[in-house]
Specification:
Elements (H helix, E strand, L loop, with lengths): L6 E6 L2 E2 L10 E2 L6 H11 L13 E10 L5 E9 L5 H8 L16 E10 L2 E10 L7 H13 L17 E5 L13 E9 L16 E8 L2 E3 L12 H6 L1
Parallel strand pairs: 3-6
Antiparallel strand pairs: 1-7, 1-8, 2-6, 4-7, 4-11, 5-6, 9-10, 10-11
Length: 245
Amino acid sequence: MTRGPTHIIEVWGDFACFTRPELKVERWSYPCPTPGAARGIFDAIYCKGWDRSTGDSQFYWQVEKVELLRAPTYIALRRNEVGSVASIATAKKWMKRAIAVQPLIADYPRQREQRQTMALRWPHYRLHGHVVPRAGFENQRQAFAQQFVRRATHGKCFQQPYLGCREFVAFYRYIEKLDNESKPVDYTQDLGLMLYDVFDLRKVNDCYAKPFISLFHAKIEHGVLCVPPYESEAVLKPESERRAG
């Protein structure tokens, strides 16, 4: 099967937190973005609309590898979070003015929960990825790639990319060639099972998909995390989803 060109973007910021799922309450970050987090950065720059009949987007981003341009450095942060969420039914009542609006305020003592976060300080990465068109859009592969290049070279995005948490803003630049670019740091770590994504990339768009967890055995070798294709057997999916796929 013909594959589109690989696109490379360099991303950096002040902080990042790619939370390990087994340490969700007291957040502890992976040393690098998960494939899902990296895909979100590409999506923030360019993603194509949805087919209204199926709810599917026209393509998804396949992350190929993540390069660490700076060795991971952790910083302990204590943040105020809310202990509850507003339901959709309640929000609709607010819109209809059926009940008074009662927002969730993080600084309100009965809603505030202080939690510890082990975040990354001064994260700096290089992401490699390519477009995977969905069924019926294969002939637009080149058009998708060209549109991404036009947007990325001008620094455009439809929402600000972020590094794991929305408050950790990410900045980026598009890289055409790697000839004069810095090399990854000499950092090696076996991360064990790493979160791959929480949606089925083969079928539906995030807005309509039922979340489920996929994992893969991640290992950073000399500053490079290689990501297997989503269709690969190396990506562990729930048994029901593997049978459906």
